[in-house]
Amino acid sequence: MGDAWDAVRTFLLRAARLLERRLFAAVHEVGRREAVAAALRGCQNPDGGFGHGLEPDIRAAESQPVAVEVALRILAAAGARDAGLEKGAVPFLAGVAAEAGAGGAVPLALPSIERAPRAEHWGGWAYQPGLNPTAGLVGLLRELDVRDPWVEAAAAACWDELGRSGPPADVHPFAEVLHLCASEPDQERVRQLLPALSVGAPRLRLFQWDAGGDGLTPLHLAATPGSRWWPLFPEPVLASHLDRLATAQEADGGWPIAWAAPGPGRGAGMGWDGDPAGAHDPRRLRQADDHRRTLSLGGAGAAQSRPARPNSRLALPPMTRASSSAARPSARTVATGSSSARSKGRSEPSRTRSDPAQATRRRSCSRSWVMVS
């Protein structure tokens, strides 16, 4: 574990942006939380939104809702609070929502992304308002204790959409809904939705139930054993993904990606030098090691006899693979885009695995911290 952890740290120090280096120091070492907020200010625009490549797939300087979500997730991960960053972004989001005319919902991106280099999958599909990223933005702003009429209007729009259509069929808006549920004051409403979330999760598009495929994994939806969503997954499934995470680390300390980032070279310079949507989070590497040592697991099969840990907040059994195979994505499709933070691959459009040269690129460490917890 020591060598693997040292490799992560060295990789971040060598390849990550100042923002992610400060984030790592604040979370895992003795860095100051205020330093994380100071680094984020360089990406904030006068309108309160964020841009300037904070979302590494989008290099436009103009503010984008997805970049706001990245900023809020980083603040939450660092435990930092800065009213100018958090509350300052709300007027931008409210303005975007008013223009979209969708009852408070916002799109991931605006057409201004086309004025600068961007990953090839970012286009018109991202201009439509919806649960992704609105639900995640509501959850993060509530987590950061931001109160504003737009936050409540956006939350209402999300619940209206869930009432009409049920949980989303794509893993990325699904992850955003989990953020919304965690922040919802009316937990009875959440409890009523949980059975549908539990049944639907194994069938999600771009979701990797079995370790070895492509897409987001249970570890993206339940980042640590303390997550309220951890008990939704069987222990053997979690163990197999933890094993894969530990063994997939490359010699330089990073993890590979499988799509073309904007710009030449490995991961477009400093933009994608980590791993999608949180798999590079050093907490996960420690989690994988602790999981095997504490439970004496040598692989996923060793967990078969271990019952799922209880969680009094969720009166639900773990999800099972039963009846989910028909809707599973092909092993050759990968999550496109970035998660929120991440990692933001959507069902529009899926892509096939990239060539080996692309697969050696690294994703930005900003995505190392963008996850559901």
Cα(first) to Cα(last) distance is 23 Å
Mean pLDDT: 77
Q: Strands of the largest sheet, in order across it?
A: 1-2
Strand content: under 5%
Largest sheet properties: 2 strands, antiparallel
- The domain tally reads 1
Helical amount among residues, as a percent range? 40-55%
Report the oligomer: single chain
Gyration radius, in Å: 19 Å
Q: How many helices does DSSP assign? A: 13
Structure, described:
This protein has 373 residues and is an all-alpha fold. It has one domain (2-369). It contains 13 helices and 2 strands; from the N terminus they run ααααααααααααββα. It has helices at 2-15, 18-28, 33-41, 65-78, 83-100, 131-143, 149-165, 171-183, 187-200, 218-221, 235-248, 282-295, 356-359; strands at 333-334, 351-352. It has a two-stranded antiparallel ribbon. The protein is globular and about 50 Å long. Residues 265-280 and 294-371 have low confidence and may be disordered.
What would the keywords be for this entry?
373 residues, mainly alpha, 13 helices, 43% helix, disordered C terminus
